[in-house]
Amino acid sequence: TWSAVPAGPPDPILGVTEAFKADTDQRKINLGVGAYRDDAGKPYVLPSVKRAEQILSSSVLDKEYLPITGLPEFTKNAAKLAYGGESKPLVSNSIAVTQSISGTGALRIGGAFLARFYPHTKVIYLPVPSWGNHTPIFRDSGLEVKGYRYFDKKTVGLDFAGLKEDLQNAPEQSIVLLHACAHNPTGIDPTPEQWKEISDIVKDKKLFPFFDMAYQGFASGSTGRDAFAVRHFVSQGHQIALAQSFAKNMGLYGERVGAFSLITADPEEKARVDSQLKIVIRPMYSNPPLHGARIANTILSSQELYSQWEGEVKGMADRIISMRDKLYDTLVGLNTPGEWGHIKSQIGIFTGLTQPQTKALAERAHIYMTSDGRISMAGLNAKNIEYFAESVSKAVKG
Ligand code: PMP
């Protein structure tokens, strides 16, 4: 029956881990997957998450199905975290929100909803480059994917002129995907001033902004600062769509905790959108998983746990920033040819190398990363940073 099924290519990101596992060298480093590691290189369960789990395990809770759109207190608190408690559409009960299977599921629900109901176009514009899963998510949701310029190879910075030109030349009312903070894979974000200009273009051209916020708090260490773009757009009256993930900022990767929300005109419109979100979700997976949403909600709804969590998010962000400083200093200290300032100015967990350098590192130094040269800074720590920097320096010198 399946003789005509062609073998598919391995996943470009998860495939790196396979190669890493097969390598027996002691010095090997995996910088492929974008999951946080502590300074001993180990997966990190946040103490606030452990405390929330203790609270949950000592409470009498059932394992009944959640509603189709998830745990209501969780979605309310997730929206508050993203939009801010004072947000006008939040206060006026005009935000339709549903729990999702982490950020990926949020993007997929949003893609499917837009493909079914957005009246103006089926085309979504993604930054070039973007997270590798964006294209298949939106294509499989029934949208057509196009790109807008984002990364400038020459300056290792934002191609702001190209970005503006492409958004200005897109047909009116096109859908535009924006990374809310810590752009993956480039680590380059617009400045607040640039976000304001982007917001103006989006308004002029009546574009529909779809924010992907997978790293709130994890980028700068402050959940408020990382939500700047989302909150600015909302303050300007944009009715945005938003995908949230709690994988990185709460370290809940495998629990699959996320939320998708849409700003609507008023509570009556919100009720209609809610009813259709349910109709989109019900045949996909019926209703979302319980445990992770309870953990996140326990943290978000307790003042004490919330402050503890904020400190822990900042701790993760700061450790990554300190690795960036150390990598920069070591590369410059070794007189490595090239301009390395971007390592310090980039935001979030990723930075990049060229493809030949990446290949040399895997073959000669047992250092693994995605073939596009994306490095997960979270895989670096006090023990391996020097070996890594020296290996990069050698690879660059050729
Ligand atoms: N968007 C971006 C930009 C990401 O980097 C990620 C995680 N790699 C996600 C969404 C979604 O991840 P998850 O489904 O694990 O929340």
UniProtKB/TrEMBL annotation:
Keyword Ribosomal protein included in the entry's annotation: no
Cofactor needs: pyridoxal 5'-phosphate
InterPro entries: Aminotransferase_I/II_large, Asp_trans, NHTrfase_class1_PyrdxlP-BS, PyrdxlP-dep_Trfase, PyrdxlP-dep_Trfase_major, PyrdxlP-dep_Trfase_small
CDD domains: AAT_like
EC number, as in UniProt: 2.6.1.1
SUPFAM superfamilies: PLP-dependent transferases
GO cellular component: mitochondrion
Highest taxon in the source lineage: Eukaryota
Domain Aminotransferase class I/classII large: 27-391
Assembly behavior: Homodimer.
Family, as annotated: Belongs to the class-I pyridoxal-phosphate-dependent aminotransferase family.
Additional facts recorded: In eukaryotes there are cytoplasmic, mitochondrial and chloroplastic isozymes.
Protein name: Aspartate aminotransferase
